[in-house]
Amino acid sequence: MNIIDKYNVSVPRYTSYPPANYFREMKAEEYADAVRRSNSEGTSLISFYLHMPFCKRLCHYCGCNSYIMPRTGNTVARYIDAIHKEIDMVTADLDKSRPISQIHFGGGSPTAMPASVLKEINDHLLSLFPTIEKPEIAVECHPGYLTEQDWTALTESHFNRFSIGVQDLDTKVLETVGRTPSNLPLEDIMTILRSAGATVNMDFLFGLPYQTPDSFAKNIEKAIQLHPDRLVTFSYGHVPWVFKRQQILEKHGLPVTEEKQKMYEVAADMLHEAGYKSIGLDHFVLPEDELYKALEAGLLYRNFQGYCTRRTTGQVYAFGATGISQLDSTYAQNTKDIQEYIDTTLGGSLTTRKGYALTPQERIAKEVIERLMCNYRLNWGEIASTMQISVGEVKAALHYDEAQLGEMASDGLIDMTENGIAMTSTGHPFVRNVAAALDPLMQNTDKKFSKPI
User: Fold this and answer.
1) Distance, CA of 223 to CA of 276 (rounded, Å)
2) 445 falls in which pLDDT band (50, 70, 90)?
3) Cross-strand partners of 434
4) I want to staple 105 with a disulfide (CB 3.0 to 4.6 A). Which of 27, 121, 139, 368 is the partner?
């Protein structure tokens, strides 16, 4: 059995630990208590996440909590009112001397909203707290519907980082997956954003119907010419038992595992040759990027919004339907029902419905798995020092099976020493598997996950 066949099995993405499908029922009062505790737990930095669930059209591959934007009625306006109301309720319990390090708008398609609406939310948040020097204020953008005036308005709304959801440049692929192509040439968008001094991410998705290694390489070739600050090659996660709309893609056929792996390898080779550096599973950045400097120092972090550095890593307070807050010891997720979110929030109550309070042992496992997923290496002594415990206590909090890890070492995925574990270049695509091998929650689970490739 080859390495891909052996390790291309269902494992968590580990954008959080524990993963979101381990969340349990949580009441609003529990979240409110966690918010108050967060003033004295963990980092003092604040990160805000705003979930904008509406899209003008739903893409068939989408794994986000997204809804078609209503064309009539006042649902959208009331949703924005509820966002402002929730901001006031949550921030009332936060220490106003704590600085904002990050604001991130996701969805859905945040840019389905007028830029003026997003600016008002940014104005609201920035009026309540100081900021670190050069906070990251980012927005995920669907280029299919934005005009030159829209892009300019976004640059005037406090945003300094733009993630452009390109996904693919082939019209057949886009038509098949139900995605509207970019309204403006990408060159024009880059000119507008660069002129405003913004940094730009470009997001691509591989593993979709009709994509091949050659066709995906053409996407990357075009992207390299445009020279974004960061480029992301997301692996399409096919989970039709969670998102029924993904079943549509099965009618067209999905690339086999070997082809999908080749897409990633070709893209990575092209980007490395162009001077980009790998970050984690799917990000590529320029050498001067602070993410790469953090990786070299072993200090790269990640939250639900993506990779971040110690400078910008804050406790995450999320607003909006389905928003997930990531506090030092607690996760909390709002209701997924938009109408319930609106009515309950405007009525003066938080809508926390699910969450997870980590045990002391799980906080250790969280630290280990986050470090491995982000930095591709573990130093037991460093982790023990950070957690103020012994190396033995670190390993005792994990599923530390030397025989299983030894097999992964024999297969060329990791290098093991007395001091720690390091992923090999061959093992990089399977870092999720190594994390799962260390995860005590994964040893007897019936949870379903996507495959790494």
Assistant:
1) 12
2) confident
3) none
4) 139
Q: What is the mean pLDDT of the chain?
A: 94
Q: How far apart are CA 300 and CA 287, in angstroms?
A: 14
Q: Exposed/middle/buried for 297, CB within 10 Å: 0-12, 13-18, 19+? A: exposed
CB atoms within 10 A of CB 340: 14
* Joined tokens for residue 243: 């998102």
Encode pLDDT of 39-90 as tens digits.
999 899 999 999 999 999 999 998 888 889 998 889 999 999 999 999 999 9
Give the Cα separation of 92 and 109 in Å (integer): 28
Using the structure block, give the residue that is written with the tokens 């630990």. Answer: 17
Report the SS3 class of residue 250: helix
Q: Which residue has the tokens 């938080």?
A: 350
What CA–CA distances, in Å, run from 351 to 52, 156, 249, 355?
Answer: 16, 32, 34, 12
Whole-angstrom distance, CA of residue 13 vs CA of residue 11? 7
Give the mean model confidence (pLDDT) for residues 211-236.
97
Task: Calculate the dihedral angle through the C-alpha atoms of 283, 100, 338, 80, rounding to the nearest 10 degrees.
Answer: -120
